[in-house]
Amino acid sequence: MGACAKFSAACVIAAMALMSMRATAASDLIVLTNQGATPGVRELAAAFSRVSGHHVRVIQEEADALEQRIDSGPADLVTANPGAIEALAKKGKIVSGTVTPFVLAGLGLSVRAGAQKPDISTVEAYKATLIAAKSIGYSRGCSGTNIAEGIARLGLTEQLKAKTILTNGGPVADFLARGDFDIGIQQTNIMVGVPGTEYVGPLPGTLNKPCPSSVALLATSKEPEAARAMITFMVSPEAAPLLRKTHVEPAKP
User: Fold this and answer.
1) Which end of the chain, N or C, is more open, meaning fewer C-beta atoms within 10 Å of its C-beta?
2) Could you count the other beta carbons within 10 Å of the beta carbon of residue 49?
3) Buried b (16+ CB within 10 A) or exposed e, 218-251
């Protein structure tokens, strides 16, 4: 069977599955998301609701608040970076065998609205921009780790330390808009379009190390069948263009 035929067959099977879902009673699903995956999950949730008839609510939670929500419920699915997913799995919070990578979020740079956009088109230009910046902000977690690793590869860790601010408790672009620093770096999907800021572009070359997120079924889910159907939808061919609308890439199989 050729590639096109295989794709068509997969689409038919997916369509039949969705029709079957519509024939059953609609469920109310709750998806707990990490900050970097939230825009894409919201897009997918809206589309899944339309095709399945299930109602999906997306709630962004982090760190202790996430675990409290998982423990107290209700919740059905969780998205997180691999390390956080692994930690939840070790605690028995998610159903074995349901962890599914679904998205990759690349890194980008923004400046305050009205500021001159620096050149970051090459590694050398990006390096020069960091050196020239008066202040730089980036977050902790996956994106912050990857940004810091890139800065270390450029040999700039010590040189930039005094003018670097590590944010906590919200998107980097929000701090940037308030004037906490002049250059902000984080995942592109939560940098683009933030009022008070202007997105410059993606980090160059191999310095643009994306942050992956996976989705998994929570052990406490009251709607496991519908939740599993949503996981299937999140990695379907139909989901790919929806994710790209939010400036991320689908995870590679």
Assistant:
1) C
2) 16
3) bbbbebbebbbbbbebbbbebbeebbeebbbbbb
pLDDT at residue 6 in the model: 42
Report CA-CA distances (Å) from 120 to 13, 32, 135, 185. Answer: 45, 34, 16, 12
For residue range 66-75, what is the model confidence (pLDDT) as tens digits?
888 888 888 9
Sorted by where each starts, the structural domains of the chain and their CATH numbers stand as 3-104+212-250 (3.40.190.10), 107-207 (3.40.190.10)
Contact, 229 vs 100, CB < 8 A? no
pTM metric for this prediction: 0.84
**Segment 157-206, tens digit of pLDDT:** 999 999 999 998 889 999 999 999 999 999 999 999 999 999 999 999 99
| Distance, C-alpha 184 to centroid of its chain | 17
Amino acid at residue number 137: G
Helices 38-52 & 224-234 angle (0-180, nearest 10): 110
Separation of alpha carbons 172 and 178, rounded Å:
10
Locate 200 and state its tokens.
């410059």
